[in-house]
Structures are given as structure tokens and as C-alpha cells.
Amino acid sequence: MLVKTYGSAVYGVNALTITIEVNISAGTKYYMVGLPDNAVKESLQRVASAINVSGFRMPKQKIVVNLAPADMKKEGSSYDLPIAIGILAASGQIPANELEDYFIMGELSLDGSIQPIKGALPIAIQAQQEGFKGFILPKQNVREAAIVNDLVAYGVENLAQVVAFFNKSEALEQVKVNTKEEFLKNINNYEHDFADVKGQENIKRALEIAAAGGHNVILIGPPGAGKTMLAKRLPTILPPLNLNEALETTKIHSVAGKLAASDALMTSRPYRSPHHTISDVALVGGGINPQPGEISLAHNGVLFLDELPEFKRTVLEVMRQPLEDRKVAIARARFSVEYPASFMLVASMNP
Questions:
Q1: What is the spatial distance between Cα 10 and Cα 113, in angstroms, rounded to a whole number?
Q2: How far apart are alpha carbons 90 and 113 in whole angstroms?
Q3: How many CB atoms are closer than 10 A to CB 186?
Q4: DSSP of 149-195, one letter per residue?
Q5: What is the architecture, at CATH level 2, of domain 182-349?
Q6: Nearest one of 320, 254, 292 to 122, comparing CA atoms
Q7: For residue range 268-295, what is the model confidence (pLDDT) as tens digits?
Q8: What is the mean predicted confidence (pLDDT) over 84-99?
Q9: C-alpha to C-alpha distance for 235 and 273, rounded to whole angstroms
Q10: Residue pair 106/137 in contact by the 8 Å Cβ criterion
Q11: Could you tell me the residue ranges of all domains in the chain?
Q12: Which of 123, 225, 232, 318 has its CA 20 to 30 A from that of 48?
């Protein structure tokens, strides 16, 4: 029997719909097709264990799993849950008639519990745009998905809960987040405050002018003069994030897996301070599985480079174009992604 479930892959800061097709027929062995990486290929071992431990039956027949579109590389472990649900539906253990209404994403442990995923917010936005009724995802990520309007978000802790939901034997609780209320409640909630700084009138005046105009700043002074302390407090005098900026910033941190489970929305401007041993790729983004770099994580906020002369020359050179274009394009042989990078650069050095 052929069954389709739906999930998503994140490219850059946007998501694309992935159809997970599962077909069970006479024969033996499992087959995974559709350009999966190693983490996706290994999912069948996790899925088999999770299904058996949760009290269901893993079919001893030929199982073919196709991740469509088949010409795009699929990465990560978040396809475990839709693959498991597809196998259970194809083997007749759960009805398949409602699967087309939901996006399903999550990593399975061997005992059937569900681990968090990256990029829940862009995936939820994609589900809403594609007209899906709901999104079933790990409980740890449900608050960031719930800020998307007109999409029902269900947080689940284990495989048995999802099966019970589709079997109509147990209802899942919808998580609701009032986006505007969440935004207004936590806006400008900073740990450090510019108001704490006593004296230093000249440098405070300079930083106020820089913050007002969005200018880049370099601080030169002896150790202990307060350069780092002032830079850390600079985001608190920048204008508050508006809702669109907050969503855009949350999206980037969601894709990078830097969002805390308690956070639905980032409401304060980011502050990033990478160590001077950072590599070019870690700063601008990219890698084998492309990830946003520090300049994108500082989008709509402040990037602080402490001890500027200690940074490698190549690292500083790769920042030249993103500073001008306010975005960074990463091109590889098989793909090209673009990350936003509109940040305020603050650097410090000793005389």
C-alpha cells in the first residue's frame, strides 16, 4: 500500500515542502531514495526501534521510502517521524485519510520519544502558505510554530501520541501563542542596560550617535577602559524591533537551532561576539550542510569583534561585501542560499 506524508526541508531561511512516499509490498529489505544524507539513511534503524518499543508492528516486507522532489538533497534527522507515520499507515495500523492535512516533523529516539528539530518557524510558515490544516512537531519547538496565524500547532512527546491522534483515540492539545501580546510583553527585555554605565560621557555620546544613524564603530582604548562593557549594552539603545524584524530574526535563529524552547519570538536585538579564532565559514555562513554564520545571527542587531587586530585577515576580508549588500549569498556546485546580514559592526582594539 502506498501512503504519503508531508514534511519540509529548510534552504537558507525559507522552507520547501517535501513529500514522504512510503510503499510496502511483497519482498524484504528497506530502501531509502530521494538523495538522503547519512542522517536520513540511518533513520530506518531509529524508526524500526521506535515502532517496536512503542507497541506497534514494524512490517517484515519490502519498504520503499521516497523523499520527493528526488533531485534535492535531504539533510538531518527531522524526517524520522513522518517516515514512521508513513510506515504505520502503509501497513494499515493507522488510517491514512487525514495525513494529507498535516505537516509532520520530528527526530525519533529508540524508545519512541521525540527530539527537537531546527527551523520550526520557516517550516510552519511554509505549511500555512501551502494550505495545510496543522503542524505536528516536537513539544520543545511548538511555541515558535504557534506564532504563525491560521495554522494549528500540536506539540508531541512520543510516537504513541501521534498514532493515538490519527486513530482518534486521544486528542492533542493545540498550543496557541498571541503573537502581538508575546511581542509587546517581552520587547526590549535585556540582561544588560546602557543606563548602568556611569561617567564615560564622551564615548556614550559617540555610541548614541552611532545607534541613531546605524553607523559602524571602532573603540580604541587600554585594557579595562570599558570597551566590551559598553559594546554589550549598545543593543539597549537601538530602536526596538518591529514585528517583521522580530519574525525575520527568529527565523534565522530557528534555522540555526539557537532558539530556546521557552521562546516563541525573539523580541530583543541580537548581540553576537565571536572569538578572534573564528573561521571564514563560521563568520559568513555555509559549510557542507549550510548554516547561517555569525553575521546572519547578528541580523537586526550588533556584531562585536573584540581585539580586532587578532582576527585573521581573510575573516575580515569576507565581511566586506555583506557590510555593503546587507546579505550574504553562499553558492556551491549543487545549491545556492542567501542569508540576510544587516547588522551594526562594533570593533575594539588596544592602542
A1: 23
A2: 21
A3: 15
A4: TT-EEEEESBHHHHHHHHTTSSPPPEE---HHHHHHHHTT--SS-GG
A5: 3-Layer(aba) Sandwich (3.40)
A6: 254
A7: 999 999 999 999 999 999 887 788 999 9
A8: 95
A9: 13
A10: yes
A11: 2-175, 182-349
A12: 123
**254: helix, strand or coil:** helix
In the chain, the amino acid numbered 119 is G
Q: Do 296 and 282 meet the contact criterion of CB atoms below 8 Å apart?
A: no
Q: Give the type of residue at 108.
A: L
Question: CA–CA separation, 320 vs 251, rounded Å?
Answer: 24
Residues 101-155 pLDDT 10s? 999 999 999 999 999 999 999 999 999 999 999 999 999 999 999 999 889 999 9
**Who contacts 298 (Cβ-Cβ below 8 Å, separation ≥6)?**
270, 271, 272, 341, 343
Cα separations in angstroms, 36 against 9, 41, 85, 210, 257: 11, 6, 18, 47, 21
DSSP 3-state of 312: coil
Q: What is the pTM of this model?
A: 0.89
Amino acid in the structure at residue 132: F
- AA letter at 88: L
Architecture of domain 2-175: 2-Layer Sandwich (3.30)
| Residue 88, all three cell numbers | 504505520
